[in-house]
Write a structure and sequence with these properties.
heterodimer, A: seven-stranded mixed sheet, four-stranded antiparallel sheet, 11 strands, B: four-stranded antiparallel sheet
Chain lengths: 114, 117
Amino acid sequence: EPEVTQTPSHQVTQMGQEVILRCVPISNHLYFYWYRQILGQKVEFLVSFYNNEISEKSEIFDDQFSVERPDGSNFTLKIRSTKLEDSAMYFCASSTQGARTEAFFGQGTRLTVV
Amino acid sequence: AQKVTQAQTEISVVEKEDVTLDCVYETRDTTYYLFWYKQPPSGELVFLIRRNSFDEQNEISGRYSWNFQKSTSSFNFTITASQVVDSAVYFCALSEAVYTNAGKSTFGDGTTLTVKP
C-alpha cells in the first residue's frame, strides 16, 4: 500500500541551527502539506503546496520556514535558525484532490531543539 | 474561520463497553469536509473516515460508526465493544473548500481514549 515516508524519524539539533525535514509523498498525489504537533497538543497546519507553489500557510509559517519540492518525489521543510519552541513532531501529508479527499500522513519526524 | 471542538479530553472505558467521541465544528462555508484520525501511542496519524457536507448518511465500518448531524454541527464517532487496541488519541478535523482547493485541515484538540482490559 502506498504511503508517505518521512526522514529522519528523529532529529536533534542545537538552537540556531538549520534543519531540513524530508518527505516523499504518495506518487500520484498533487497536494502536499506540513503539520506540526507540539508534544501532547493538537495537530496544527503549517503550509499547503500545490502546483509547485504554496497555496496556503498559517501564521506559524513565518520567514523561518520554507518548503520546496526539489524534484518529482521529495517535499522538504526547512527551518532556519531553530528555536527551542520549534521542538515538535512534524507531519508531512499528501492528498489527491485537496480538501475533497483525505490526507495521508507520514509517520512524522520528531524534532528536538536543545 | 473554522473551528473544531472535542470537549472530551480523556475517556476511560473497560473493554467491551461502547464509547462515543464527540466532535462539534464551526464553519461559515456550505462545502466542507470532516475527518476522523487515530493517533496510536506510536505517534502516526491514521485516517479513519471522511464525510462531505452534503452527505449526512451515517456510516458503519465494523465496530466503528459515525453520526453526522448538520443541524447540530456535530460529527460524533462511536466505537462499539471497545478493545484495548482502540486506545489512542482520536482527532476530528475539518477542511473548507471555498477559498482554495488545497484542503487545509483544522484539527480538534483530540480525545485520549483508554480502554482497560
